[in-house]
Amino acid sequence: MSYDLWYWPNIQGRGEFVRLVLEGAGIPYRDRAREEGAEALMQDMAARRGFGPFAPPYLVDGDFASAQVAHILAWLTDRHGLGAGSLETDLQLIQLQLTVTDLVAEAHNVHHPVAADKYYHEQKAEALRAATSFRSARMPKYLDHFEAALKVHEGPFVLGAKWSPIDTSLFQLIEGLTYAFPRRMAALKPRYPLLHDVHDAVAQIDGIAVYLSSDRRIPFNEDGIFRHYPELDAE
Amino acid sequence: MSYDLWYWPNIQGRGEFVRLVLEGAGIPYRDRAREEGAEALMQDMAARRGFGPFAPPYLVDGDFASAQVAHILAWLTDRHGLGAGSLETDLQLIQLQLTVTDLVAEAHNVHHPVAADKYYHEQKAEALRAATSFRSARMPKYLDHFEAALKVHEGPFVLGAKWSPIDTSLFQLIEGLTYAFPRRMAALKPRYPLLHDVHDAVAQIDGIAVYLSSDRRIPFNEDGIFRHYPELDAE
Q1: Alpha-carbon distance A111 to A106, whole Å?
Q2: Which of B17, B42, B54, B158 best tests the A interface by mutation, with the highest count of A CBs <10 A?
Q3: Complex ipTM value
Q4: Which tens digits make up the pLDDT trace of B97-116?
């Protein structure tokens, strides 16, 4: 079995949360739009009407396509035994993943508070205000929540010794927030030792380590979710 | 079995998507914060550390709490046989529900583009710009997507003759968007006959009809997700 992943080919973006799980678990996949381009992605998505995806990323197995990051990861968890194997705990992991989704949306909203289809420079004044609130109120609120979840077991992962998709997602959050807000993340770092532990532990998972040093890992850039605009960062 | 629903007591908000399913399916529940107040909600949530909710609404059964609207509804669907009974279709319904979640977040962002913890009047200028883009680009994009999903079966519901939680959610979207943007929704109405059909069909489900005429249905107001600020509306 090999999956087709469809996502914008030039950014990590939301697709990266799916890529990390596939790479970490050694699940074969083709990153279709990186092979065939964004136009092929648009055409493929347009052909999937009805119950098809609203937006990339989506993951395809045969005739079935699954969209929405947390939903894709729950599907992979179920199919490939990546979770706790207990219904209640697996439901709680999905819930945590959906909270990652919310933080990702808010991180994007910081540089696009007015309209996703307008450029950053068209909404920079609004973004400056949004960033202040995001850094002071929202980042600690979310990071407190994830740090508390990491206290349930002994670590380094959310479930303890076994990694699951929420861990690769927390890794990516720390990576992305540190890229976008290096000064703020440096100031916050002492408050979140467990988040930094899980970040470091994920980076050492065999499949992840290989992936991160490959050219499949697209560098962060100012077209993705996590963008480094120095004027939006502060301690 | 009776569930405890915890949500802010003075708004429909995100909790309404859960209330509608419980009411429509005749599932017993207590709306705890409406009985005991917002302070009780804050205390209850603070006591649920670790894998607990990041934010209301959450639904409790015994020792287990589930948060995130789409996740709560998937859990209820599974436990109470509210879905299609086919894994692939039920996954597609969850995916649609997660897209409802995205639209709800964007609808809130229209009146709070800068910061959720600041008042509307502190970000009105930004909201005016955000509303223009939301009305012209985002509303039709989402409504097109849901209208297409309603074409998969014969209607009036997404699965055909049987309603499921995505239908009560589409009902609530139409209700909320019509409350918040009456001029825009009137202009768009001819493009979305199936969405208006499902709205009307949901309103006639026995449990929903009783609920809507009860005082359990909180009127829309300017503290919730869908707010009517006339300056943000236009054809």
Answers
A1: 9
A2: B54
A3: 0.97
A4: 999 999 999 999 999 998 88
